[in-house]
């Protein structure tokens, strides 16, 4: 699915990713943990093409294609999805309109006509049920005035609508109450298939009880410093990161 | 009295020179206002320069320093075009004007059947003398903007619309004013709209420049909403690079009336709008909106005064602008709550989105509050495009241009959503997009082949 090799990236001249390598295969779920400021969100943003970051070295192959060569929107349409740690509020842009346009763009990329209004509404309803998101939210402007938890739910809702091959969920669990966590995790699990993959960035092993990862990685100081099975998460919870970064 | 500066003196002298000609072309009744007006123009000091606080950002004196011709007699009553011009709203009562002079057409009979009076100001001054005397120049005459006095002195004719009591119009009344001239021209257009009690009407006022001439339009519109009347007035300012638009809009509201005015400034070299609203009786609602898109070296200046004279009135004012290139804009919003105007609610917002480092938005609220039990608020923002939001949209597969367009439309939404004529709203949104994408915005179907320089 995705193969990252020796990735170096900087922002405002400051190197954040310092030779990161990671491979995720179809059907897998990978968890990335690591201390604050380690570069987890940076990795997510570099992969989705945020221009604030400059890649100085390394290669990323996404389904065999050179990912770094693609525009932000084309990466999305190739099947990459980023669930934001801090979803952006966009006053004046309605959720429905936004999703309609995004969905149509994805279809256009695959040479398909946009869905008819009724087909689209059907899809919307189905996916809304999946993440148990309130119609009150989808009738508003994108993320505007949403609570922290609602924003995160909305990310999963968008993911469900766009059906990506690879979803990178950046701290989608933080700010969620217990029920919301269960719903969000349930949504992710329901969307899990043999031909897609998920990278979960999280600080809490709690989420990983709901979404069981195949691998757990520790990202510290811009590199993956340790990888292991799901049990690694438990160990990290107990011991922290010090023993790995010393 | 001090001497007038050169440009002002020139117009003062011009008036003296051509007064008999103007009088000949106009009606006795209209002529009665001229003398006082030109003296007022003089006593106000003529054209303001930027030294005058209220004109700090727009130099009217230098605008009039250019050698425009004036259209003293509307000789041809024929329209200089085929009717396939870019009409913003298809389903409307369309009235045609040329250089501000009204040219009667068939749509008139339909309106007349409903009891609505639509005629030239001259005709109104003769046939509907009472109405004319009651309303003409009632608000404009009080104004201390000298260009308004100049208009009163020079205007020979214009459009008069009277909507009688309890008359509700099913479609908007659309004015299509075509600027047509073989030389650069100053036009003093003058309109008077009276909406009687419990009547309901929408006006859409559009001006198109048909020739590649420099046009300076100095328009005065007086709009009166009587008891419980509901009136909407939209002014679409979408001309071209050589146009200078001066709009002086006066609104007078009586008890329980509701007025919405929206000025849509899309394209001209320079625009100055003076809006003055008098809430004279209790329980009036007023909405004063504006939207401006200024690119290249365009200049848009909105100067508004909402006067809460009576208690229990509400006003909402919202102006939004997008600036690009080397554009300059100004917004000055004055809310005056008079001593007796208790329980006033007045809100004002001005938001600017500045896309270029070389563009500059000026904004100034001005609250004069003499009553104590009032609720007033004002807020102004000057911000840049939210690149984070564009990135967010892109990560969902939406291309940059489309994301940009969405953001622009979203920014304008708070004003465009208030447009109650769906066709106009749709068209405005399209014009905004076109302009943002650097395409022409003015009438494509008209034979305007002017290319912006
Ligand atoms: N514009 C910037 N200029 C300089 N440094 C920056 C800039 N933006 C981010 N950084 C730094 O990059 C580093 C990595 O940030 P990043 O957001 O990737 O961390 P993270 O691993 O996601 O942390 P957290 O767990 O707190 O979300 C941090 O030290 C941050 O301060
Ligand atoms: Mg982070």
From TrEMBL, chain A:
An MF annotation (GO) of this entry: ATP hydrolysis activity
SUPFAM superfamilies: P-loop containing nucleoside triphosphate hydrolases (SSF52540)
One Pfam family cited in the UniProt record for this chain: ABC_tran
Keyword vocabulary terms for this entry: ATP-binding, Nucleotide-binding
Domain ABC transporter: 2-246
Origin: domain of life: Bacteria
Listed CDD domains: ABC_FeS_Assembly
Claim: Nucleotide-binding is one of the keywords in the record: yes
Stored InterPro entries: AAA+_ATPase, ABC_transporter-like_ATP-bd, FeS-cluster_ATPase_SufC, P-loop_NTPase
Family: Belongs to the ABC transporter superfamily. Ycf16 family.
Protein name in the entry: Fe-S cluster assembly ATP-binding protein
UniProtKB/TrEMBL annotation, chain B:
Origin species: Balneicella halophila
Domain SUF system FeS cluster assembly SufBD core: 182-411
Protein name: Fe-S cluster assembly protein SufD
PANTHER family documented for this protein: PROTEIN ABCI7, CHLOROPLASTIC
Domain SUF system FeS cluster assembly SufBD N-terminal: 7-175
The family this protein is said to belong to: Belongs to the iron-sulfur cluster assembly SufBD family.
SUPFAM superfamilies found in the cross-reference section: Stabilizer of iron transporter SufD
Gene Ontology biological process terms in this record: iron-sulfur cluster assembly
Pfam families, alphabetized: SUFBD_core, SufBD_N
Superkingdom of origin: Bacteria
Organism lineage string: Bacteria, Pseudomonadati, Bacteroidota, Bacteroidia, Bacteroidales
